[in-house]
Amino acid sequence: MTPSIQTTPTIQIKSAAEPPAVIAPDAGSVFATRARRFEQLADGHVLADWLKFLATLTRAQHAALQSLPALPLPDAAALARAREHRMPPLPAQSWPRDAAWHAVLRQLVETVTPAAPESARGDLARLAALPPADLEAPAERVLHTELYGADAALLPYVGAALQVLWTGAAAQLGASRGIAALDVPGVCPCCGFLPVASVVRNAGAGENTVANLRYLHCALCNTEWNLVRVKCAACDATEGIAYRELAGDAVKRPGAVRAETCDSCKSYLKVVYQEKGGVDPVADDLATLALDILVDEAGYARAGPNLLLVPGG
Amino acid sequence: MQVTRRQFFKVCGAGLSGSSIALMGFSPAPALAEVRSFKLARATETRNMCPYCSVSCGVLIYTTGDKSKNAKADIIHIEGDPDNPVNRGTLCPKGAGLLDMVKSPNRLKWPEVREPGSSEWKRISWDDAISRIATHMKKDRDANLVEKNAEGVTVNRWNTTGFLASSAAGNEAGYLTVKILRGLGAVALDTQARI
Question: What HAMAP family does this protein map onto (chain A) (predicted)?
Fold first, then answer.
C-alpha cells in the first residue's frame, strides 16, 4: 500500500494580494460625510460662514443624489471599447450628460437660497430662472475647468450639480461593471477629470486593503484611484517631491493636510491623511486656503481644481 | 475645441478678493489676515529598503528641513512602504525600530580595521579600505587560482575566497556582482537575499 503524502497547505499571505486600483464613490455617504466635515471645520474657522454655507450646499448635493433617477450608462460595446483603449467611460467633456442635472441644479439652488447671504440671492434667483438651454454653456466652462470670467459666482453651483450627476453615474458604473485603471495616472479613470487632492487612506473594511496607500480623488465624480506615493500626479516625476505644511501655533489639525510639491513641473496637489480622523479631500482643501497661498508664494501652481471654489485673480 | 497645455490653477492671496468666496457674499479678508500667522514647513519622503534581513522590506523615510536654507536635515520617522509589494507597509519589530539604528550612538559610520595581533579597531579611509580588500583578494587569488584540472582542461577556479552580496541590491548591481566575481573565477558566490 502506498502511504498517502501529507502536504502542508500553502499559507496565503494577505499582503500578497493586490489592493484595489480604483474605488468608485459611495453614493449613500460621500456628500453626507463631506457636509459633516465642512461643519466640523467651520467651528472656529476664519471663514466659518462660508464653510457652513458649503455644508448646506453639500447636504443638498446628498439629498439630490438620493433622489437622482437611474442614469442611462454607455452600452456594453462602448464600455468594452473604453476599457480596451484605456479611456475613461464617462468622459467629462464628451459623455452626453443627462438632463437630470438641470433638476439637480434647481434643487440645490432652492435648498441653499435661504442660507445664502443677502448679496448672493440675486445670483441664485437668476440661476434658478435660466432656461435649460442656457445652463449648458456654464456647464461646459466647468467641465473644461475654465473657472473664471463672467458670472463666475454661478460656477460653484453648476459644478456642485454636475458633481451629483457624475457621482451618481460613477457609483452606478462601479456597482455594475466596475471601473478599470487607465494607463495615465493623472486623470480620473471614470471621467478623465482632474483630481482635487490625494487621500492617504486607512485600511478599509474589505479584503486586500492596505493602510497608507495614496489615492487621487476626482474633483468631479468622486472616484478614487491609486497612485504610488512620492510621485507627482501632474508629471509623474519622483525626484524633487516635497511636502509643505502649515506650521505655527494657529494650526488646528497638524499633519492632516500637506501640499505635495513637485520641482520638475512646479505644481502641487494637497494630500489629506485619513489617520488624522474624518478628513475629506474637498472640505479639508477649502479649509486650508492659507496653505495654497503660501505654496503659491513659494512658486508652485495647483494641479487640480476644487469645483466649489472659483479662485479669482 | 481649445487645445492647451495642461492647465494649472492659481489659488493666491491676490485672487481671493475676486474669488467665489467674495462673489457668494462672504468676506475673504480674515483668511488673508490669518495667512501671516503661519509658516510653511517642508518635509520629504524617501524610499529605501530595510537593511536587516533577506526579505528586503520597503521603507519610507520622513525627513524634515529645508535644504535651501542651510537647515540641518533630520530623519523624524521611518515606516513600511505601502506601495512595496514585498511588505505592503508592514514591518517586523526590528524593522519598526530602524529610526533607533539611524540615531544610534554606536552606529558604524566609517571603515575600520583591526590588524592581525591587535585588539584595537583603527579608523581608515574608504580608499584605504578598498585598496586593502583588493590587495588581499589579489594575493589570495595569485596563490590559489586553479587554472587547469587533473585532465588538463582550463577551469580557472578560485576556491579560496567567497562573496556574499547584499539583499538590497537591484538587478543591475546583481548583474555586475556576478560578472566581476565570475570573471575573477570565484566559485563561492551567494547573496543575503537567499538565506
Answer: FdeH
Please state the pTM of the whole predicted model.
0.88
As annotated, the residues of chain A forming the CATH 3.90.1670.10 domain(s) are 19-192
Q: Closest CB to A153: pick one of B23, B37, B90.
A: B23
Distance between B95 CA and the closest CA of chain A, angstroms = 17
Per-residue pLDDT reduced to its tens digit, A190-227: 999 999 999 999 987 666 678 999 999 999 999 999 99
Q: Which domains does chain B have, with CATH numbers?
A: 9-38 (no CATH), 43-102 (2.20.25.90), 120-194 (no CATH)
* CATH class for the region spanning A19-192: alpha beta
* ipTM topping 0.85: yes
Residues 79-108 of A with CB under 8 A from B: none
Which of A225, A147, A159, A161 is CA-nearest to residue A188?
A225
A49 contact residues in B (CB cutoff 8 A): 26
Q: Which triple of cell numbers denotes residue A134?
A: 442656457
Q: Residue A276 class from Cβ within 10 Å (0-12 exposed, 13-18 middle, 19+ buried)? A: middle
Cβ separation A15–B45 shorter than 8 A: no
> Are the Cβ atoms of A245 and B12 closer than 8 angstroms?
no
**One-letter amino acid for residue A204 of the chain:** G
